[in-house]
């Protein structure tokens, strides 16, 4: 593929926006807002964005009442090779009613290792957790206490599988249906399963590019004939390999 043949960031992002629209409408119903891709200069934002450029939340109903909503936002760029679409930052926030603070925040930051690039933050309170945070002799909770700021459970970044194995919007929708029995469109499970398989396959391919030798070893064990390239590209710096990042 030549540089002229390679798809543009705008084109890849628009395709991704269409896929998210197909997913949410296939699971939540045809009235779910459409995702749009908006060029922000060095990245493209994909979200249900209104004409006034305000991000629109996705309503989620239980027994016909829209008691929940999702804020979904992806900032996209091209990967290091300039060929594949990459997520620079992603947010999936779950809200209850008109409450300003979210219940859950699924977040991803491409260049972050500390805190983990892929993490969940839970907006809740538990006396025991607050006590443990106050006992901390180092790290963010201690720094916050020095500024007379009490630590909160919502400030903890809970790791969720690293940069390659992180959950996606499909996982969040499946969680909502399983735990809260949200209203879903007819045939929703087939739509969700198809998109979830596509997401996992995409992440698997990214992981293979991170460690092709491990992939070749497994394929040989399965009976595939795998030939090493004549010219072996130098292994990427393990410190820069996202497969091993938290």
Structure description:
This protein has 246 residues and is of the alpha+beta class. The protein has one domain. 33% of the residues lie in helices and 21% in strands. The chain contains six helices and eight strands, in the order H-E-E-E-E-E-E-E-H-H-E-H-H-H. Strands 1, 2, 3, 4, 5, 6, 7 and 8 form an eight-stranded antiparallel beta sheet that branches. Strand 3 and strand 4 form a beta hairpin. Helix 1 packs antiparallel against helix 5, helix 4 packs across helix 5 and helix 5 crosses helix 6. The radius of gyration is 21 Å and the shape is globular. The N terminus is likely disordered.
**Class by helix and strand content?**
alpha+beta
Q: Note the overall shape.
A: globular
In round numbers, the mean pLDDT is 89
In total, how many beta strands? 8
The largest sheet, given as strand count, sense and whether it forms a barrel, is: 8 strands, antiparallel
| Rg over alpha carbons | 21 Å
Low-confidence stretches: 1-5
Strand content: 15-25%
What is the count of helical runs? 6
* Helix-strand pattern: HEEEEEEEHHEHHH
Euclidean distance between termini CA atoms? 33 Å
Roughly how much helix do the residues carry, as a percent range? 25-40%
| Total of domains | 1
- Oligomeric composition of the shown chains: single chain
